[in-house]
Design goal:
The complex is a heterodimer.
Chain A: H1 3-17, H2 19-38, H3 45-54, H4 56-70, H5 78-94, E1 96-98, E2 101-103, H6 108-133, H7 137-156, H8 165-172, E3 174-175, E4 178-179, H9 180-198, H10 200-210, H11 212-217, H12 222-248, H13 259-269, H14 281-300, H15 307-352
Antiparallel strand pairs in A: 1-2, 3-4
Helix pairs in contact in A: 1-15, 2-14, 4-9, 4-10, 4-12, 4-13, 4-14, 5-6, 5-7, 5-12, 6-7, 6-12, 8-12, 9-10, 13-14, 13-15
Chain B: E1 3-14, E2 17-28, E3 32-36, H1 43-50, E4 58-63, E5 66-68, H2 73-78, E6 81-84, H3 96-100, H4 115-128, H5 144-157, E7 162-166, H6 174-189, E8 193-197, H7 204-207, E9 210-215, E10 218-224, H8 230-238, E11 256-264, E12 271-276, E13 280-285, H9 291-298, E14 306-311, E15 314-316, H10 321-326, E16 329-332, H11 336-340, H12 347-352, E17 360-361, E18 364-365, H13 367-380, H14 397-411, E19 415-419, H15 427-442, E20 446-450, H16 454-460, E21 463-468, E22 471-477, H17 483-490, H18 495-504
Parallel strand pairs in B: 3-8, 3-9, 6-7, 7-8, 13-20, 13-21, 16-19, 19-20
Antiparallel strand pairs in B: 1-2, 1-4, 4-5, 9-10, 11-12, 11-14, 14-15, 17-18, 21-22
Helix pairs in contact in B: 4-5, 8-17, 14-15
Classes of the chains: A mainly alpha, B alpha/beta.
């Protein structure tokens, strides 16, 4: 086998198996094209900062969504849960009366904890429905998205305006020119990526999604792990809700509609598979970056906004199709060539023994 | 002999069947112990009990002379039972090392996976199973034998003293089998006991020290391999069965309606046979022999590479099932729940589903006529259902199978391929189904029956063709066919050799 062949194999293999890397390359290429075509409008700190700020919620949610997708499940209630977290934090900050219960204004930290707690409860209910009752995750979380969404609207109404500055400062401060939520996002994504790639507890997700029977046989408590995962998803939704509320200075019962579908789209583009067992947080984050970059580029290029969903949908299908084609065409041949040498060695040993 | 494991009077009852009845035998330390029996003999139930998946209703297991009762799979694992199931348990997108240590990866502080140590330990285990592979390679890139060996490495990582191998050679080639056998001998030398389940009886002589035989959930005996013959084992597996209600019609010798010549695909090669009018042709063989694949190729559901199919003197090549149906060929799937029935639809809808066109006028389905016709078939096949509107999922296995039969009967196919006609069907319904198959043949349909149950083929078929690993190994007319002969052919042993062996013993 020639060196150039081997180099090509390595590259093809990387492109097939490392979705984060191939997306990063695409992002760099697309950015370069946009910079050349539109210069300063695209390649400016304010644009970069704006793009990043806009994708904070999606990026935080996609961490948990990728955990779920790797495990072979899904959560459609995260948008509602995000709104619930923000709304509960909002009413705890402002004080209100719900269910005849008088809530006095709470300190910022206490209010946030209540918001996160509420979202965790939403996640817990998802987890119990899926892992204990045995409801299909899609149905369970679809139903919960209605229930949580309704509760969030009841509690938060259309708007809880004028949140206190002491709270808003958490999202409205700038550090080194960037708004602080961008730093929250980067830290969370980094932690989320390291947890999934490096920690034993989180590595379980791959076994649960890849082969649930084998996971059980390997001593993994599938039910408890799934419940913990949904609670973690709830916590991340709550965090995203709190950060978003502070950034806006108000909370409402219907924040960011349909964000769950955007997040799932990004996770799939980022290398996840709904049948479970594969995907990384890095890939998912690159998926979010890529979609938002495309959207921004279209705005800057002056393309009608209605084209955005059409393009995003096309990219989603393209990502899946490319995956299928590459696996069929190159996956097998690369592996086969690699294997033949391996097998020869193995057989040689076997015969010699 | 140094006994490691003893089954004592192990009994297991499932609803309606006594799966195991007082099984008693022992496995020695460092022995390869074969476990054989026909489908449904109870082998896998017994192994599931040993692996902690099921608990016995009566009887006990003794390990190292001490009574043990495994509450679950994990309990069995820590007690030194390693099971390599037929279906793989590996996750393709993870590395070999992670698969070996699934959920038990070596860790540093804070449960941070220690990849270096994990890979080092995995490499050590891979060496023990004779695999010279980088443990960080993804499992999806491995070949079948390599995955098999990784499974064994995984079992060894749990310090297994008893290794259960369930059909380990079902998916690997002959040369690879030698690699596996070398490993098994090596492990045996290290004092590990291996329980070896296989349908490929010819393997037993190569690898097993002793063999135990089960039949219909009853223990038939254990033989030392060097002191027995395959013949004896086959006789033990088959036992004496009183059957043969076959009424010989001799149709096998009439003019062929279907001729298959040298049919080859990835799953089978060079298969030729004829099917005569009125004939019932059986196809025997073990799982993976290529029987169903041939049916699917004839039916246009799977492609085939080479070969010729001649239907009534006209060469045909069906690209999709609808072409085959058009030409008068029907196929009853072996997996009626997944690929045959619409479980959540009514009996009538299931029956007419392949015949909608016949009941449609100007695009509208004429329910009334369809129902009338269905009613006729329900009566004719004696389908036990409260009404035509009953959902198929609520019927028994036998009645579900009859609904499928009705569908193809209504189609009036000239050739009907029936894959496992009585799987999961109780005895009463079985006989009724046999009667309908015969009746259809009498009325002019040519039928191919694929079955894993040899007695079934013997009482139904005018002629039986046997397959082994994708090749046709023989063809017997009803009057010359016996269960022993079929079993030999299924195992790939030519009949002349079998006769020689019998003469020698």
């Amino acid at each position: 086998m020639s060196n150039s062949h081997r180099a090509r194999d390595v590259i093809v293999n990387q492109l097939i198996n490392n979705r984060a890397l191939s997306l990063l390359i695409l992002i760099i290429v697309l950015s370069a094209i946009m910079s050349i075509a539109f210069g300063g409008i695209f390649f400016s700190w304010s644009n970069l900062s704006g793009v990043l700020l806009n994708l904070v919620s999606e990026a935080i949610l996609v961490i948990g969504m990728m955990y779920l997708i790797v495990s072979g499940v899904i959560d459609l209630s995260i948008g509602a849960n995000l709104a619930l977290g923000g709304a509960i934090t909002g009413i705890c900050l402002k004080g209100s009366v719900i269910f005849g219960l008088v809530i006095n204004p709470q300190p910022v930290a206490v209010a946030i904890l209540w918001g996160l707690f509420a979202s965790c409860i939403g996640g817990l209910l998802n987890g119990l429905l899926v892992a204990r009752v045995g409801v299909n995750a899609l149905i369970a979380t679809l139903a919960m998205s209605k229930i949580i969404g309704g509760a969030a609207l009841y509690i938060g109404g259309s708007e809880i305006a004028d949140l206190p500055d002491k709270f808003n400062v958490l999202s409205q401060t700038r550090v080194l020119g960037f708004f602080i939520p961008i730093y929250y996002m980067i830290i969370l994504v980094l932690i989320g990526a390291i947890l999934l790639s490096r920690f034993r507890y989180f590595r379980r997700f791959y076994f649960i999604g890849g082969n649930i029977r084998s996971a059980r046989l390997s001593g993994i408590n599938v039910g408890n792990t799934l419940i913990a995962m949904f609670v973690l998803m709830g916590l991340l939704a709550g965090l995203a809700g709190v950060i978003f509320a502070a950034r806006m200075g108000n909370a409402s019962g219907n924040t960011l509609p349909n964000i769950e579908l955007n997040v799932i789209t990004a996770a799939i583009i980022g290398g996840g598979s709904l049948s479970g067992g594969k995907g990384t947080v890095a890939g998912a984050f690159m998926g979010v970056l890529f979609i938002n970059l495309i959207k921004t580029s279209m705005v800057i290029a002056g393309i009608d906004i209605y084209w955005q969903p059409i393009i995003v949908g096309t990219i989603l299908i393209a990502a899946v199709v490319i995956d299928i084609v590459l696996q069929e065409r190159y996956g097998a041949s690369v592996n086969l060539r690699k294997l033949q040498s391996v097998r020869r060695r193995t057989l040689g040993q076997g015969a010699g023994a | 002999m140094d006994t490691l494991l003893r089954f004592k009077n192990v009994t297991k009852q499932f609803p309606g069947v006594r799966a195991l009845d007082g099984i008693t035998f022992d496995v020695a330390r460092g022995e390869v112990h074969g476990l054989v029996g026909e489908n449904g003999a109870g082998k896998s139930t017994l192994m599931h009990i040993l692996a902690g998946v099921y608990q016995p209703d009566a009887g006990v297991l003794e390990l190292h002379g001490r009574e043990v009762r495994f509450a679950d799979e994990q309990h069995a694992q820590v007690s030194g039972i390693g099971m390599v199931f037929q279906e793989r348990s590996l996750v393709g997108s993870l590395s070999i090392a992670e698969n070996i240590f699934a959920g038990r990866q070596p860790v540093k502080l804070l449960n941070w996976v220690d990849r270096r140590r994990m890979n080092r330990q995995a490499a050590e285990l891979l060496r023990r199973v004779g695999l010279d592979l980088d443990p960080s390679v993804m499992v999806s890139t491995l070949s079948s034998i390599e995955q098999q060996l990784v499974e064994i490495a995984k079992a060894l990582s749990l310090d297994a003293r008893i290794l259960i191998l369930d059909e380990p050679t079902a998916t690997i080639t002959e040369i690879e089998t030698q690699v596996l056998f070398d490993l098994i001998r090596d492990l045996k030398g290290k004092g590990i006991s291996i329980i070896y389940i296989s349908h490929r009886l010819e393997e037993l002589h190569h690898i097993c020290d002793r063999v135990s035989v089960l039949k219909d959930g009853i223990y038939q005996g254990t033989r030392v391999m060097s002191e027995t013959t395959l013949d004896e084992i086959i006789t033990m597996m088959v036992g004496r069965k009183i059957l043969n209600v076959y009424d010989n019609r001799g149709w096998a010798r009439s003019a062929p309606i279907l001729q298959v010549r040298g049919l080859s695909s990835t799953a089978f090669s060079g298969v030729s046979f004829d099917l005569a009018e009125h004939e019932i042709l059986g196809i025997a063989g073990l799982a993976g022999a290529g029987r169903t694949e041939i049916a699917l190729a004839l039916f246009g559901a799977d492609p085939y590479a080479r070969g010729e199919v001649i239907l009534k003197d006209r060469p045909v090549h069906f690209r999709q099932p609808s072409d085959a149906i058009e030409a008068g060929i029907g196929y009853l799937t072996e997996d009626r729940k997944a690929a045959g029935l619409f479980l959540e639809l009514a009996v009538a809808q299931n029956i007419v589903s392949a015949n909608l066109r016949a009941f449609t006028r100007s695009g509208l389905v004429r329910d009334h006529t369809a129902n009338e016709k269905c009613g006729e078939f329900v009566q004719r096949l004696r389908i036990n259902t409260p009404s035509l509107r009953q959902l198929v999922m609520n019927l028994s296995g036998g009645n579900q199978q009859k609904v499928l039969l009705a569908r193809w009967l209504m189609k009036n196919s000239q050739i009907l391929i029936i894959d496992e006609p009585t799987r999961g069907v109780d005895v009463g319904a079985k006989n009724e189904i046999y009667e309908f198959i015969r009746q259809m043949a009498r009325e002019g349909t040519s039928i191919i029956v694929i079955s894993s149950e040899l007695p079934e083929l013997l009482i139904l078929c005018d002629r039986i063709m046997v397959m082994c690993q994708g090749r046709k190994t023989g063809e017997l007319l009803h009057e010359e066919a016996t269960e022993e002969k079929l079993m030999h052919l299924c195992a790939g042993i030519p009949l002349e050799e079998a006769a020689v062996e019998r003469g020698a013993s």
